[in-house]
Design brief:
This protein has 170 residues and is mainly alpha-helical. It is built from 8 helices and 3 strands; from the N terminus they run H-H-H-H-H-E-E-E-H-H-H. The chain has 2 domains: 9-76, Arc Repressor Mutant, subunit A; 84-167, no CATH class. The protein has helices at 9-20, 26-33, 37-49, 62-71, 73-76, 131-134, 136-150, 153-167; strands at 84-90, 107-110, 116-119. Strands 2-1-3 form a 3-stranded antiparallel β-sheet. The chain is globular, with a radius of gyration of 15 Å.
Length: 170
């Protein structure tokens, strides 16, 4: 009997990168996300095991990923806003939702190079704060995922719509 394979937070960043660049090579995933090819390979294997990728490919199973993100992400990768810090805007303050949700308290991924101040949200993977310059498309999707993790109903609904647009599902 095979053992269980648990998803990691960084797997969601790899999934977002594969949405941005379907079928991206392991070196390309490493470049986009600042991780080793071996780390990206492990993430792809876990995503495939969880049926979030099409079997034997690096192509996202859009319907399965959407279902997991919208209905399971906030439970599998629970987050609670922390202390006010300087950082990179995420969730409702990120690029996917900032035009749709107005707030005086942007959630941020802690980073001394960030340009916003607000409650800290633990990122799904350690180098998330580098995404605005590394890969704006991945940043947009990962920040929408954070809105699903920490947002209220209105933010979650807007995040689900943004994710649907990126995944091209309706």
């Amino acid at each position: 009997m095979p053992r269980n394979i648990d998803l990691h937070g960084l797997d969601m960043a790899v999934a977002a990168a594969l949405v941005a660049e379907p079928g991206a090579t392991y070196p390309r995933l490493s470049e986009l996300l600042g991780m080793s090819p071996a780390t990206s390979h492990g993430a792809v294997r876990r995503l495939e095991y969880a049926a979030l990728l099409r079997p034997g490919t690096r192509i996202v199973n859009a319907l399965a990923l959407r279902e997991f993100l919208v209905h399971g992400l906030r439970y599998a990768f629970a987050a609670r806003p922390g202390p006010v810090v300087r950082g990179v805007p995420t969730a409702h303050a990120g690029p996917a939702l900032r035009a749709h949700v107005v707030s005086d308290a942007p959630y941020v991924w802690p980073s001394p190079e960030g340009d916003a101040v607000g409650p800290a949200v633990s990122p799904l993977y350690a180098r998330a704060a580098e995404l605005p310059r590394r890969s704006p498309a991945v940043y947009e999707l990962l920040s929408a995922m954070d809105a699903l993790r920490v947002g209220r109903a209105r933010e979650r609904k807007a995040a689900a719509a943004a994710i649907d647009r990126r995944l091209q599902v309706a």
